[in-house]
Design a protein that fits this description.
By secondary structure, this protein is an alpha+beta fold. The two termini are 18 Å apart. It comes from Halovivax cerinus.
């Protein structure tokens, strides 16, 4: 998960608008989170990967910022990400 304006320059990673997919509010791109969902290998033939854009408030409501913080803290250390 990254801020939409800090993501790749590739067109598929740019926000299609300035709208949060959960609350449909208009939000400036620098305040949108890019949420990428990848299907697990056994389900990849049935389900496609997806990218959506989410505002700060909805990301906080889904606790995504805390999850992202934990992932970054444990990245590069070879640690497993804690559950809670």
């Amino acid at each position: 998960m990254t801020a939409a304006d800090a993501s790749s320059d590739a067109p598929e990673y740019k926000p299609r608008g300035r709208e949060c997919y959960r609350c449909t509010r208009d939000v400036a791109p620098q305040f949108l989170f890019r949420v990428t969902v990848e299907s697990p290998a056994p389900l990849s033939e049935t389900y496609a990967d997806g990218v959506r854009y989410c505002c700060e408030d909805c990301a906080a409501a889904m606790n995504l910022s805390d999850f992202s913080r934990r992932m970054k803290r444990h990245a590069g250390h070879g640690d497993e990400v804690p559950d809670g």
